[in-house]
Specification:
This protein is an alpha+beta fold. The chain folds into two domains: 173 residues, Formiminotransferase-cyclodeaminase, Chain B, domain 1 (2-Layer Sandwich), CATH 3.30.990.10; 116 residues, 2-Layer Sandwich (Alpha-Beta Plaits). The two termini are 14 Å apart.
Amino acid sequence: MIESIPNVSEGRRAAVVERLADAVRTSGARLLDYSADPSHNRSVFTLAGDAPAVAAAILALFTEAVAAIDLRTHAGEHPRIGAVDVVPFVPLAGSTMGECAALARQVGATVGNRFEVPVFLYEEAAAHSTRRRLEKIRRGGLEGLTGRMASGTWHPDFGPRAPHPSAGAVVIGARHPLIAYNINLDTDRLEVARAIAVSIRESSGGFKYVKAAGFRLAHRGLVQVSMNLTNYEHTSMFDVFDAVKREAARHGVSVLESEIIGLVPAAALVHSGNVDLQLARFGPDQILENRLRAAP
């Protein structure tokens, strides 16, 4: 079984998000979870199945997304380069990272040819060592990537050498499980969220295996420290929550709540050190193993 967690640049039009979900449901893969955020203008889908079913689901998702999303009119807090922005494949029971990397290359070749969307491979599927990290490919958003492609220094692994007029480009790859984890602050001061993100992320000398940025959630009138924890066994949600809470207090700000986007492995919820994550809207159905057992 292989898991995939495609991120799509649409979080405001509920009808479009539902059509994307239906595309996955009818593909043969199991749709385990999906959620949309209007401020980020982004949706995250979690699906699983064998390699053919997962490939079919991603291609069905592309069919709907390319038809419905136009990045020329897209606006949102989260950086993006494509209508379907990033597609990771993650090995679950009975599958290997090598199989996920092979699937990334197979799906990438099809996407580049069928939809004329440039495809960049990342993490364990990367063909170029300088492109392993997602943030390097997505730096500067679609505008930044377009400039690098136009300069002739960046060519995609598959597809045309210029972004699709409305659907942009996509990053596809294979990686280990990560946790998409956000902490919402009880303030609208964006500079506080950004300063905290700088203090905790690996690239600025903070926690290893933490990627973080500060965003404004205009629809709620507050700000957010948004994170990817790429190795929760080394740096846990409890580690970063405690650090963010301390840093927020230094700025005279309190933590309102935290949230997990998508699903989380059960192992990530142990060894809390008695730290209360103040998780909002979290229940047993957000535990990956529970969803896999319950899915038809």
